[in-house]
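Hi team,

Filling in the usual template for the complex we talked about on Friday. All components are listed, including any nucleic acid strands or ligand strings, so the model treats them as one assembly.

SUBMITTER: L.P.
PURPOSE: interface mapping
COMPONENTS: two
RESIDUES: 626
SEQUENCES:
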Amino acid sequence: MDLKRLSQLIRASKSKMVLCVVILMATALFSSTSWAAFIGEDLEIPKPTFTTEGEVVTAKLIPRGRNLSIQIDFAVSGGKLESVEGKPFAEAERPEVDIKDFRSALFVVKASGVSPGGEVKVSSASNYFNASTAFWVFNPNASTPWTEVPVTHEDLDNRVHRMEFTVKDGGPLDSDGRADGQITVIGGPMDDFWAYAIGTLVIRFFGVFLVLSVLLIGLKIASGIFVKIESSLAAKEPAETKA
Amino acid sequence: MTWDYVLELIKNILFTQTGIPHVGFGQVIMLCIALFFLYLAVAKEYEPLLLLPIGFGIFLVNFPLTPLMGFTEHGNPELIRAFYKYGIEWEIIPCVIFLGLGAMTDFGPLIANPKTLIIGAGAQLGVFVTYIGTLLLGFSLKEAASVGIIGGADGPTTIYLTAKLAPHILGANALAAYSYMAMVPLIQPPIMRLLTTPAQRKIKMRQLRKVSKREKLIFPLIGCTLIVLLVPAIAPLMGMFMLGNFMRESGVVKRLSETAENDLMNIVTIFLGVAVGATMQADKFLSLKPFMIFVLGLVDFVICTAGGILTVHIMNFFIKKDKINPLIGSAGVSAVPMSARVSHVEGRKADPNNWLLMHAMGPNLAGVIGSAAAAGMLIAMFN
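RESULT (copied from the run log):
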């Protein structure tokens, strides 16, 4: 197909008008002011609510790209879990991170009763996590504010997955920056948005093929059976008519 | 009573009880958009059954102070808000429309040539490609899924999915879906000609076998079982679709079947159209997003059409005899029966003795099932 033929086809059809509209829209879109207006309000910001039971604080929230709420349990060993709060992502936004990767919000975890300069283990568990979920910590006072924390993964019952990491009082993950027996960790679970979006999409596209292929097989089998029934019925009918 | 008092009273009435002083620029624009869609529906007869109530819905809600889309002081929904709440928010109307569609549908061509189901799956390509494109443009996951489904060219499915995932873009999505469905005869032919050679367009397909009444009766049961088992999320739509078809094929509930495909469907279509149109109030609609949705919807539609045709090419590569005419691939986008008619018309342009209509109905019906399956996949993704 050469370009000349393509242009003839387009000219011959009324879709020329539609093409013009597309070009105009594209031009409008890529002007920066229109882009800002276009992005609009972020309607999917997770809004966690918290409940405390014993030494575990549970956050309940609807993560980005989900309809149903999930729960994340926070606990601390080697100190006392004081509180867990949500933190607006805007306050921690940096060019090196993408808000879409933090689908289940940012949290501020505060612990006390730590021996000054000592270590605590912070754990978060949810059936929303999997082995590829990472935990990133934000420390506004550090030279590199965002860091991926080395975590240990563990599968618990009921498909719950736990991540645990160590925080040193006054260390790089402690936002208060002081070895004062108190620890403040700002961070949240992170999943690669694009890996998820494209991965799940490819699976689902082939899923549509799978569904319709299964229906195709079902129809083929049913057709085979019915064609046989119909032909045997048709063979019986003339015999009965003859008799 | 003094003149000043009377004037004050008139002024108060004018400002608080009439809409005139509250008419804004945005509302004027929306009224023009409403008139444009009413023009398309009435003068051009583009999907008038839906574009007319949608256009009038836009027209009505863009007058200021109208008690239509809000709530009364007792918290009860106002007239059109009630249609929206109980019909769309509760996901009832799209399912009732599918019941009517099922009662209207003759699955004979699909049962006779079940391999056309694969074309219906291939024609969902645009749904997924557009999804990625939409995400790249900054839409959220749910918005992207809702925009993607436009290419499936199935109005009720688009409304069902969007109402579930991204109700704030329902108006734009529904309008884009129905507009492009109406424009199938304009959009599809250039793509069909571009992706096929004259020789391929002349391929004559073997006449479809006769499908018995028993087969047609059992189809909704088989179809429902397999689809609902594999994609439970789409059970409300598919269940109603197959129920309508079972009523039709059973032949014992003619009254119910006729009511579902005529009166019931007509009634809910009015409520659906007006309620969808009413979501397009100036303050919510006038941004670049709806316009982007229109552009993406068109791209989606084009890719879905191409996806169907390319699927036929791939199938033909493996088929030794009884090749499929690739023109019927474009009918995989649903839009029943318009896209099947377009395939037929294009086929006859290539060879006036080539009758493709019934062959194209197979992928056309597969497209309905395919787009519902794609919607189910997308819904399941968020649960």
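MY TAKE: The two ends of chain A are 66 Å apart (CA to CA). The CA atoms of residues 3 and 9 of chain A lie 10 Å apart.

Thanks, L.
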